[in-house]
Amino acid sequence: DADVTQTPRNRITKTGKRIMLECSQTKGHDRMYWYRQDPGLGLRLIYYSFDVKDINKGEISDGYSVSRQAQAKFSLSLESAIPNQTALYFCATSDLSSQETQYFGPGTRLLVL
Amino acid sequence: AQSVAQPEDQVNVAEGNPLTVKCTYSVSGNPYLFWYVQYPNRGLQFLLKYITGDNLVKGSYGFEAEFNKSQTSFHLKKPSALVSDSALYFCAVRDQYSGNTPLVFGKGTRLSVIA
């Protein structure tokens, strides 16, 4: 969905490096989410934010942090990347008016060496 | 607590045949139910949702899903499969009254439509 963009789309990094994945949306939604996708494990929620001042841990927040810089921007950081953080990362947005239907970005493919 | 299960990791169907991708759920109250599709190298795309009303919900690309409260199921269906329907399908649920709880996603079912 072009209304939700993620940068970079692909990233290769080394163990121990700090990296940031960025998400921007033009849908005007208050709620934003970060997921990771691994084969056979489906989508797992890392962090979510219901507004600029609200940050919540998801199922697998260890090793990750987030920043909600504005309604439209939600960044995910890996403080010290490790190989098992190699995955496909998705950002999503939603709002209550659509019963929390989530709209996803195109994903960032991350490889940690 | 809310949860969703997709009992099949893989579904294979011949082109032109009907397809079904299964989903069962568990919520405390009334469910909001969703189906998403993921094509290779793409993000998840919303297909359809059940909120209330008619148990048969129609969505994008000719897909439909049937809500069955007694069986706590929300199976995705299409009368005639296309090769282009081959993708990964995710079911998701949230409780109608859990305003601050995100959607819970199933682990996905890979659909392969064979020509």
Question: Summarize this, please?
Answer:
The complex is a heterodimer of chains A (113) and B (115). With 113 residues, chain A is mainly β.
Structure write-up:
The complex is a heterodimer of chains A (113) and B (115). Chain A has 113 residues and is mainly beta. Chain A is 0% helix and 58% strand. Chain A is globular, with a radius of gyration of 13 Å. The model of chain A has no long low-confidence stretch (mean pLDDT 93). Chain B is built from no helices and twelve strands. Chain B starts with a strand and ends with a strand. By secondary structure, chain B is mostly beta strands. The interface between A and B is medium-sized, with 24 and 23 residues.
**Quaternary structure state of the chains depicted:** heterodimer
Can you tell me the residue ranges of chain B where pLDDT is under 50 for at least 5 consecutive residues? Answer: none
Distance between the termini of chain B: 41 Å
The proportion of residues forming helix of chain B, as a percent range, comes to: under 10%
Task: Spell the H/E element sequence of chain A.
Answer: EEEEEEEEEEE
Which term fits the overall shape of chain A? Answer: globular
Radius of gyration of chain A: 13 Å
Mean pLDDT of chain B comes to 94
Q: Which strand-content bin applies to the residues of chain A? A: over 45%
Could you name the ranges of chain A where pLDDT drops below 50 across 5 or more consecutive residues? none
Record field, number of beta strands of chain B: 12
Helix fraction of chain A, binned, reads under 10%
- Beta-strand share of residues of chain B: over 45%
Q: Kindly name the structural category of chain B.
A: mainly beta
Chain pair sharing the greatest interface:
A-B, 24 and 23 residues
What does the largest sheet of chain A look like? 7 strands, mixed
